[in-house]
């Protein structure tokens, strides 16, 4: 997977192309990298674990993946991941698919009843299918068929990919791995949340309050809080913290700037609070993390 640690929280990279918005990336940790910062994208993502262990943080919830697991994340779901063991490894395939492939522009019962609510954040953020889960082999066989179809690219493979993605959603709904909510957020709600995310990605170094964010999208603080949580699974302020921490991870890994400077550069105006928050999220202090990733830069904190 191509990594751009300096990118904003919402990925700007196009996955696949306009004609076939579907792509599969190989993830190999620590061979390519040992963590990936907080991000989201308009595509749904399916992680099919080959071997090893990894911890995903999805909408402020930690999920440990092991060999054989199938993780399905809906569009715009906030997530990051990292190795949890010092000498650990993790190999997987990540399938990214735009719902435009199966949600046709013509409004029909499938679009209005299922895909539009999913696109607007009106369903569970993710589901995890483990080897011990009911119907696991059906999902595993489908994943294997998707991988073979994509890499072999035999005649008419594009049609088969669309068929298999539709089948995946049918199985997820039929077996109740995802749930469509009755109080689905509207497109306007989703646009408000994306405006807030854009604002935070550009102003995370500054003081950010819920009052400021609500004024930005012309909503009450209570209304914005409810909409933001319903779509992302976390509060606005929790998201700000997660975003700042992802920036701090990048700077610790790629620069020799001191921990104190990094804290202030990422919007943490109190070094003690930065250290406590960092350790709470990653089980190591910033200095310990820098040593773990092999930086030889002196720490001036």
Question: Summarize this, please?
Answer:
By secondary structure, the protein is of the alpha+beta class. The protein has helices spanning 109-119, 136-152, 157-174, 187-203, 210-216, 221-232, 236-254, 259-265, 271-282, 286-292, and strands at 22-29, 35-39, 44-52, 54-58, 61-65, 70-73, 79-82, 90-97, 126-129.
Number of separate helices: 10
Mean pLDDT: 84
How large is the radius of gyration? Answer: 20 Å
Largest sheet: 5 strands, antiparallel
Strand content: 15-25%
Number of strands: 9
Q: Which structural class matches the secondary elements?
A: alpha+beta
The unreliable regions are 1-10, 295-301
Adjacency order of strands in the biggest sheet:
1-8-3-6-9
Give the SSE string.
Answer: EEEEEEEEHEHHHHHHHHH
Helix content: 40-55%
For the termini, the CA-CA separation is 33 Å
Please provide a written account of the structure.
- The protein is an alpha+beta fold and 301 residues long.
- It has helices spanning 109-119, 136-152, 157-174, 187-203, 210-216, 221-232, 236-254, 259-265, 271-282, 286-292, and strands spanning 22-29, 35-39, 44-52, 54-58, 61-65, 70-73, 79-82, 90-97, 126-129.
- The strands form 2 sheets. The protein has a 5-stranded antiparallel beta sheet with strand order 1-8-3-6-9, covered by helices on one side. A 4-stranded antiparallel beta sheet has the order 2-7-4-5, covered by helices on one side.
- Helix 2 (136-152) runs antiparallel to helix 3 (157-174), helix 4 (187-203) crosses helix 6 and helix 5 crosses helix 6.
- Mean pLDDT is 84; it is low at 1-10 and 295-301.
């Amino acid at each position: 997977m191509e990594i751009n640690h300096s990118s904003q929280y919402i990925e700007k990279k196009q996955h696949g192309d306009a004609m076939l918005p579907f792509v599969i990336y190989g993830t190999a940790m620590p061979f390519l990298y040992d963590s990936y910062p907080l991000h989201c994208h308009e595509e749904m993502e399916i992680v099919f674990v080959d071997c090893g262990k990894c911890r995903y943080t999805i909408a402020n919830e930690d999920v440990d993946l092991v060999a054989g697991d199938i993780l399905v994340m809906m569009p715009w779901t906030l997530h990051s991941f990292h190795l949890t063991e010092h000498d650990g490894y993790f190999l997987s395939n990540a399938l990214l698919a735009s719902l435009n492939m199966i949600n046709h522009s013509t409004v029909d019962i499938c679009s209005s009843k299922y895909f539009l609510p999913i696109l607007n954040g009106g369903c569970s953020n993710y589901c995890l299918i483990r080897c011990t889960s009911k119907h696991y082999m059906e999902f595993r066989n489908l994943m294997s068929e998707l991988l073979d179809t994509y890499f072999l690219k035999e005649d008419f493979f594009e049609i088969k990919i669309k068929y298999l993605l539709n089948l995946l959603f049918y199985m997820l709904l039929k077996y109740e791995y995802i749930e469509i909510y009755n109080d689905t957020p509207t497109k306007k709600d989703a646009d408000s949340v994306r405006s807030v995310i854009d604002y935070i990605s550009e102003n995370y170094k500054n003081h950010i309050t819920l009052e400021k964010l609500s004024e930005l999208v012309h909503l009450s603080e209570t209304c914005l809080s409810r909409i933001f949580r319903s779509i992302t699974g976390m509060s606005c302020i929790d998201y700000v913290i997660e975003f700042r921490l992802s920036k701090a991870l990048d700077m610790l890994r790629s620069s020799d700037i001191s921990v104190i400077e990094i804290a202030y550069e990422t919007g943490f105006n109190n070094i003690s609070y930065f250290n406590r928050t960092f350790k709470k999220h990653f089980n190591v202090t910033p200095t310990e993390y820098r040593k773990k990733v092999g930086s030889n830069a002196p720490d001036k904190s």
